[in-house]
Amino acid sequence: MANVSVYNIEGNQIGEMELSDAVFGVEVNEHLLHMAVVNHLAAKRQGTQSAKTRSEVSGGGKKPWRQKGTGHARQGSTRAPQWTGGGVVFAPKPRDYSFKLNKKERRAALKSALSSKVAENKIIVLDAFNMEEVKTKKFKAVMDALKVSKALVVVDNNNNVVLSARNIPSVKTASTSTINVYDILKYDTLVVTQDAVATIQEVYA
Predict the structure, then answer these.
(1) Are residues 41 and 71 in the same domain?
(2) pTM for the model
(3) Are residues 148 and 184 part of one domain?
(4) Where in the sequence is the domain holding 196, given as residue range(s)?
(5) What is the pLDDT of residues 28-77, one digit of tens each?
(6) Do residues 17 and 61 share a domain?
(7) Exposed/middle/buried for 147, CB within 10 Å: 0-12, 13-18, 19+?
(8) Is pLDDT larger for residue 204 or for residue 110?
(9) CATH of the domain at 27
């Protein structure tokens, strides 16, 4: 099992914690990581792009000139794609870009992402992260004490922490039920409380 240091919000090391190899020590599967990221981004797409085909634009019912003898190329409609105001060839239509990722694949990808952070020594475990009031300045002070800037902060049931972090563009907060592979890989450092680590290990072990 991997041992990681445990810090308090002042940035001082106060102990160590063992991480389960079943969650934080698996072999990193880059293919599953890629699939999970593509799945996440695809699900976020609105899929509302739309353009009209030649059958949907108005006008163009009459043949613009006779077939032969004009010196022009033959044309059947002024709403063909080559005309100004014509339809679009293979026009995009509203669609759903999301696709299914199996439950076992999702779990394995998340374990790979967590394990990669441990392997790169980019995980910081806090003994607790409690804030009595919503204060962005105090949250920023904690991040500065931990010497992290771009971080994903995983806490459970602490609304003040979430609200305090929302004005910091380089930080995102998540709970153990909302963490995903994309966010873990996107942010340089994973900051997680001991309680959140215990919950993650209980759910994904």
Answers:
(1) no
(2) 0.83
(3) yes
(4) 2-45+98-204
(5) 999 999 999 999 999 999 999 999 999 999 988 899 999 999 999 999 99
(6) no
(7) exposed
(8) 110
(9) 3.40.1370.10
- Calculate the CA dihedral of residues 112, 117, 118, 120 and round it to 10 degrees: 120
Determine how many CB atoms are found less than 10 A away from the CB of residue 55: 8
Q: Is the pLDDT confidence value at 157 over 90? A: no
Same domain, yes or no: 142 and 83 = no
Q: How far apart are CA 76 and CA 55, in angstroms?
A: 13
Distance between CA 140 and CA 162 in Å, rounded? 12
